[in-house]
Amino acid sequence: MKYVKKLKLVLEKRIKRYHEDYTNALIAEMYEEVLHRSLLDIGLNSKWENNRSHKIGEDIFEESIGRISCKSGALSKDSVEWNGSRTGKYETLAEKLEFLSSDHDDYYFMLAKDKKNIIDKNFKYKVLIFPSSLCKVNELNWEEKFSRDGKLSGWKGTGNFNAKIVLSMSGQLWTTLPLDMVEHIIEIDGNPV
Asked: Are strands 79-83 and 152-158 parallel, antiparallel or unpaired?
């Protein structure tokens, strides 16, 4: 993606302005709008609706990129973890995996942060850009997980990345992706000047 360097400059500027007024981490619709406006700033044809939609997958559409999913991720030393869709309405693991691996988006533009940095008011982020096809959960090896009392508590998937489906959270998907699999990592210092 030839525009990554330009995008870093405008994203960082907008995130610094956000943190001039706010000490809460940049998340959700606020991040979507910051990314949308940054894409426009660098001349891309970004389309975003300010309707607090919770539809699955696409948050922004841009002609040359496709459907962009804006996620927030938690950084660790060598990976990022994020939550995904809830699968409570699907009964079997096969149904859940089919739904989760369906074609909902083309790229992730994930705003990832180290929780300690945010608590310490050190607003450093990484924007992780990668194709959503990189983490299709139907390509993992899945096994059942049980609670201490022997009841099914969910499933754990392992492979090139890891995932879990937690039944106590309405069957929510949690994904952990190694950072070395990420196509582009944009380092952002969002601390105001």
From this structure: unpaired
The full set of domain ranges for the chain reads 4-189
The pLDDT tens digits of the residues spanning 112-130 come to 999 888 788 899 999 999 9
**How many angstroms separate the CA atoms of 30 and 35, rounded?**
9
Distance in angstroms (rounded) separating the CA atoms of residues 122 and 23: 9
**What DSSP designation does 162 have?**
E
Q: Are the C-beta atoms of 75 and 112 separated by less than 8 Å? A: yes
Give the list of residues 6+ apart from residue 75 with CB closer than 8 angstroms, or none: 112, 113, 114, 126
Q: What is the DSSP string of 107-135?
A: EEEEEEE-HHHHHTT--EEEEEEEEGGGG
Structure token digits, residue 60: 């922004």
Q: Please list, residue by residue across 31-43, b when 16 or more beta carbons sit within 10 angstroms of its beta carbon and e when fewer do.
A: bbbbbbebbebbe
Calpha distance 25→116 (Å, rounded): 11
Tokens of 124: 């450093």
For the cut 90, the answer to whether the pLDDT of residue 98 exceeds it is yes
What whole-number distance in Å separates Cα of residue 58 and Cα of residue 105? 5
Helix (H) or strand (E) holding 5: helix 4-21
Residue 155, SS3? strand
- What's the one-letter identity of residue 44? L
Can you give the C-alpha Rg of the chain in angstroms?
A: 17
